[in-house]
Amino acid sequence: MAEIFQLLLVSVESGLVYGMVAVALTIIYKTARVLNFAQGTLASASGFIAHWFYANAGLPWVLAALAALPTTFVLALIIERVAVRRLLRRGFFPIVVATLAVDEFFVNGIEIVFGADALVFPPAISGVAFTVAGVQINKWSLVIAGTALVLLSVVAVIIRSNLGLAMRAFADDQDAARLMGISDATVSRATWTLSITVGGVIGIVLAPILFLQTGYMANTFVLALAAAVLGGFNSIGGAVLGGLLIGTVDVFAIRYAPAAIQASLPLAAVLLILLLKPSGLFTRTKSAERV
Amino acid sequence: MSDAILELKDVRSGYDKNEVLHGVSLRVARGASTALLGANGAGKTTLLRTISGILVPKSGDVLFDGESIGGDAPRSIVERGLVQVPEGRRVFRNLTVFENLRVAATFQREHFDESLQRIYTAFPILKERSTQHAGLLSGGEQQMLALGRAIVARPKLLLLDEMSLGLAPILIKQFYGTLNTLFGSEISFLVVEQNARMAFSASRYVYVLRNGEIADQGDVDSFSSDNARLTRAYLGGS
Amino acid sequence: MKRPSLDRHAALQRRDLLTIVLAVAGWFIIPTISSYELAITLALSYAIVGLGLVLLFGTAGQLSLGSAIFFAAGTFTASNLSTRLGWGLELQIVFAFIIGFAVGIIVGLPSVRVGGLSLAISTFALSFAGQQLLFEWGYVSGGGAGVGIAPLQVFGMDFSARGRIAQTATVVFAILAWMVSNLLASRTGRVLNAVRTSEVAASAVAAIEVKRTKLWVFGMAAGIAAIGGAIYMHAIKYVNPENFDINLSIALILTLIIGGSNRISGAIVGALFVRGLPELFRGLQRYEGVIYGSILLLLVLYSPTGVVGALRSVPRFVRAKLGKIPAVDSVSLENLELAPIGTRRVSVAAQSGAMGVSLVVDNVSVRFGGLAAVDGVSFSVKPAEVFGLIGPNGAGKTTMFNAICGVVKSTGSVKFDGVEMSAMNVEARSRLGLSRTFQNLSLHSDRTVVENVMIGMNRLIDYGTVAEVLRLPKVRRVEKEIYDEAMETLGLVGLQQYADRLVSDLPYGLQKRVEIARAVSWHPKVLMLDEPAAGIPSAEADRIIGRTIEIARQAGITVVLIEHNMEVVAKYAERVAVLTHGRLLTEGLPGDVLKNPAVIEAYLGAED
Predict the structure, then answer these.
(1) ipTM of the predicted structure?
(2) Is the CB of residue A172 less than 8 Å away from at least one CB of chain B?
(3) Subunits touching B (CB < 8 Å, at least 3 pairs)?
(4) DSSP reduced 3-state for C562
(5) Which of C397, C603, C607, C608 to mutate to test the interface with B (most CBs of B within 10 A)?
(6) Which positions ≥6 away from A98 have C-beta within 8 Å?
(7) pLDDT tens for each residue of C380-418
(8) Does C531 sit within 8 Å of B40, measured CB to CB?
């Protein structure tokens, strides 16, 4: 029984992580109608940058993490300006290919700048926080879960602001949004910086437990992708719910299912959803679109 | 300052290689309402999109308040005070009524509260439903919301694209009737309609567009009293 | 007059010769540069994958990020067949293809239905899951330890000497390239392109089974990628699942994009560039991602057709500047001669039984959410009649068309020659003999005028894929016949001289003529015209609609047209139905209907 409880706790923790990355992916999908394939790699870049501030600039953990954020933000601005902006009106292929190019660039770039060896980024606080029903709860797990919840609140606040309103209106009907004076460039910038920064924060808090090596965020990214598909790329809530579902299934599959099944979990989830309900599990289909 | 708030000079416009407007010239008088009529396919929506900056004219010029705006970005045209209520309302279905109104205040934030009061007074049902998603409103309520957004934007010139579409006739009459009280006399209107008679009640001068060209124009009285003239202009032939 | 069909045939013969020359040259040159053996073979293995992606991505427009897994399928097939069974390369290739194709079909089945971004996502997930599964499936993949390969043998002959694998790879590539080129040059190339450029026209006019086509090409690309994997195995001699990660999938597709997605030369150029160069310049390898990522970004921004496309566009640009490519805009439309409608067309029509077919619409409704765009509309179109459908904006006319051809779901009955169509999909209805044009043209914009018409005639082609891949004499004969008939159809609308121009270079009015040619090219029984007069000057509208009606009358084709131009309706329609607010207002003779006060009121608005 204690084991089930522990698995559930881990599920929630993982679920929140996948959920937040899924939120980041959903935001971009809603405004630009594309998937940012570089999301995982960019999130890992933030982790490496934070580590640099910690190991090379000698900043304490929290300051190092905080210093990495503006860097990530600027990086996002550059990527949006260079790779995305001009491709917005050309349909989704060019932007998808552009994100793949960015991904290639950063996978290699990270290795060049930070070296190919795995780096250790010790957590700011470690050890057990407390024990509940025979299950130990790690301090860092609390940090991760807490960070995810903070991110969720921040996103929720931004979505309700005037800027968030403009983003949502743009996602709803681009031409009508332009007629209201909403600027393509502003929405695009806001979307990509928010999305990449959210991913970056997750990359930073996961670095201590996943260890900094190339591709350390890849698995998280794929599962977050599955979560976003489950949520139909439609709403923040759907993405979070999708994340929790994927997190739970993943954790229990690792424990109880043969390795082969556990490996194919994200693929199976995605294919199943696409087959049965392309609009995702957690979407309410509103009145259909005109042909 | 000229007495025309909007002027089109020999505008040719269309999509890609397709030319829909073959040299259109018209003037919208300041402080009055001008109607642009015509059957569908005549090019009315193309004309409005060209004025609002979504399409760039291939040749000719668009002048707003004396200044050339042809080729300007939609955003700056809205900023100047040229606002369009698009065909089919196009409210943001996933935003609430209040959010729809708020999002229209991009350039007029300081006056938002005041505008909001005016809108809620004129359309009490919007106040009632202010937290509902706009997609759930009826056609008539969406029209109210669209007009509300236009009020929030405090335009100098308001373009109305086929307000009558999908609405019951009695509602249409109501809306056209309230335009002047809602917006006051300082505002000019360009009313685009397929339903001519409805537009007459709200307009002073009429242009009829057919196959991308101005087929006829004149004072409202000269049209409303002569059925055949209007039919000819719309449908062509004798 | 020029006979471009002969030119095309000659061009393909030149290509055949070139392929043989290259393969032979490669065979003899390679041993002299055997230190580059590995680089060449690796590049060729990538290029082979590129061939499949030219079909899938470059032509059919489907983005797959799962190539690594199909590549791996081939690699491990080759390894296991050679080490466990002692089979030679020829069998390894055949089985690699079969297994790759099968896995492709299985994975593709749920994914291609949704296509587009969803396909990219599911293949991305496939790359992850597939690699994990490979690690787990130790019997085949050797788990973390990996597997090796037996020395190369082909048809029992020992090919393990130095340089042999590169030579063999060259020959394999040459053969595959020739086969894929044959596909691109005939029916498959046109069908895949049609699916990418206009799915709705492909299904509604050419009766192309879109979903099946997408699945097929996905499987083909997977099978071809597997062949590349088999070659790769022999080049690299030892492999483990670690090699086959998502980065490989991305690299494979990026390779093609860098080269140029829709041409075979792009596959080779991209592969040499992305896979060959780093082998030659080891120093480069360290910076691969940064270099190729930047190049790719630049290409996406400035030259979407890749390196090959950029290189090709230079001579074209220069020629255009020198005035050697005449612009089409300056053409005066009146001077285009319309060829006489010969008796051949009438007799073909008689043969296909198209002497009049009725179209009966009974109580059809189309609902979007709570709104009825079409509400209980009924009308009958008599055999060989010209029937007009008019009404103010938003009345539901185009929705009605879409309901008849099956693009939107509807209730009620639509009978074609007495056959109930409501349970049929778009392609099946088109197969019955239903054709149409579109309000906002749906042409295949990156193809020539004559190819657009040939796509319309797809159903008349009766050669199979095997014949097509080998370009058997039957294929050449049928292609020529189709070409000739397409040219004849173009003659009817006065466009023969523009047959080899890109359709996107033509002015709007001429593009409308191409749509009509495409719609009538295969002798339909019912032709639906959606606003044929829109966007063109009245004189041209009259000319082209008049000619279309003439063609229809000669062949007994029933015509239904949506129009706003009342002069056109009055002149050509025999009967007219008026829709307002999704309902039928009235029907009858054009003269009567257009004078009907209720109709005028519908357009102009009610009296107070």
Answers:
(1) 0.87
(2) yes
(3) A, C
(4) strand
(5) C603
(6) A83, A84, A87, C297, C300, C301
(7) 999 999 999 998 876 788 899 999 999 999 999 999 999
(8) no
